[in-house]
Amino acid sequence: MKSLILENLRKKYDSEEVIKGIDVRIEAGEFFVLVGPSGCGKSTVLRMIAGLEEITDGSLWIDGTYANKLQANKRQLSMVFQNYALFPHLNVEQNIMFGLYTKGLSKVEQRGRCLETAELLGLSELLKRKPRQLSGGQRQRVALARAIVTQSPICLMDEPLSNLDAKLRAKMRSEIRQIQRRFGLTMVYVTHDQVEAMTMADRMMILNHGVVQQVGKPLDIYNEPANTFVASFIGSPPMNLSDAAFEEGRWRLPSGQALLASGRAGQRGKLGVRPEHIVRAEQDVSFFAELLNVEVLGTETLISFAMGDEQWIARWPGQWKLSVGQRVPCYVAPEHIILFDEDGDRYRGTASGKEFEDKQEDAL
């Protein structure tokens, strides 16, 4: 197992800076996920770690060794690409063994490793097939086997599941995580899918336009987002957000609705509530929701309603018989309200008027 340290890592193309100073330590044996929208710089960071992109500024350390100028084949890492990058003229066995040819292993040892890895990933019956004869999931397993068979301590994955259907993606998420634990790999995994990030990561880093928004454990980020971007990106459905001002002891929304939480007179910002924290009121009523849409999903029901110019969503467990246009009393507990300043950064205390968090300190 090997650790990675990124110190003020930057990348420029001509005059445009696309990675704007990343500082993070990835621990040995950690499953670390880079997540963010398309074009935010995730794959660029991964390629800089792999040695496929030159580092413009900053430092990369691999297990204590300065690696900025280290050749890609000297970094002791493997990589799985989004498009699998299999050789179409080679069969499965040859594809898996391809990375072993340069390691000076005997043919017996190469084949032994290949057979062991193929059995682990359920490929033993497919070794003589060509990639065109495989399904998407089987091709993904071959790409994964080719990375694992080298026994490199660091494995990089660039959106490896994006070409698979939803059911297969869920299965492969579990398999990749089990393999990472079994071999003790340091895994750096890139995805734009926040569900993958939440379910797979020991820790994750959220990027937007090449800037780190937050680094932390998935549930810590979910429960305490550093800013409105993180709040709206992490969570499905995402956090409900609306402009708000503190007046007469409550946070008043543009819709005229008011929610009870601590604040200071004249304070302004954004108010955020997770969908699961909007519950049907039994006694105390925070507001009435006039339903715009109802989705009964079997295990839960999603209801949509207008909150001023915004559309909010509530998530209720179970199956609710509700109809569009119905007015439903709702309640939000004060401790479940998260407040952000006018720049979108979260207040240090939940629903409090304390000074703002420093976003970069929170991320690191």
Task: Give the SSE string.
Answer: EEEHEEEHHHEHEHEEHHEEEEEEEEEEH
Strand content: 25-35%
**What integer is the average pLDDT?**
89
Beta strand count: 20
Description:
The chain is an alpha+beta fold and about 375 residues long. It has nine helices and 20 strands. The strands form four sheets. It has a six-stranded mixed β-sheet with strand order 6-7-8-3-9-10, sandwiched between helices. Strands 13-12-11-14-20 form a five-stranded antiparallel β-sheet. Strands 15-19-16-17-18 form a five-stranded antiparallel β-sheet, with no helix packed on it. A hairpin with a 2-residue loop joins strand 17 and strand 18 (about 310-315). It is elongated, with a radius of gyration of 24 Å.
Name the features.
single chain, 364 residues, alpha+beta, 32% strand, disordered C terminus
Topology, please?
Layout: E1 4-13, E2 16-26, E3 31-35, H1 42-50, E4 57-62, E5 65-66, E6 77-80, H2 92-97, H3 107-120, H4 136-148, E7 154-158, H5 166-183, E8 186-191, H6 194-200, E9 203-208, E10 211-216, H7 218-223, H8 228-233, E11 240-247, E12 250-252, E13 258-259, E14 268-273, E15 279-280, E16 287-296, E17 300-307, E18 310-317, E19 327-331, E20 338-340, H9 359-363
Parallel strand pairs: 3-8, 3-9, 6-7, 7-8
Antiparallel strand pairs: 1-2, 1-4, 4-5, 9-10, 11-12, 11-14, 12-13, 14-20, 15-19, 16-17, 16-19, 17-18
